């Protein structure tokens, strides 16, 4: 019985190692890209980044409620002054 449980423990500890094996194609219908396709993707990516650099900075605010709000900061509610206690009433 001890030998069986020891074998089970060894099997359970080695099973996760099989999950880390590289180069397993789990989706055979999806083919990996050829070097030419990778080069084309790199060219497209460079063109995309260059086009992003050519976008001008937005000068106007994109706040749709900007004209509704006032520019003044909201005023704090007036708080009544707290009464101060005097320590002693010696006259």
Give your account of this protein's structure.
The structure is a single chain. With 91 residues, this protein is an all-alpha fold. Helix content is 41%, strand content 0%. The protein has helices spanning 2-19, 35-53. It starts with a helix and ends in a 38-residue tail after the last helix.
| Total number of strands | 0
Which bin fits the share of residues in helices? 40-55%
Structural class call reads mainly alpha
Question: Segments where pLDDT lies below 50 for 5+ residues?
Answer: none
Which range does the strand content fall in?
under 5%
Oligomer: single chain
Rg on CA atoms, Å: 36 Å
Broad shape: flat
Could you report the average pLDDT, rounded to the nearest whole number?
77
The H/E string reads: HH
Distance between the termini: 97 Å
Count of helical regions: 2
The largest β sheet comes out as: none
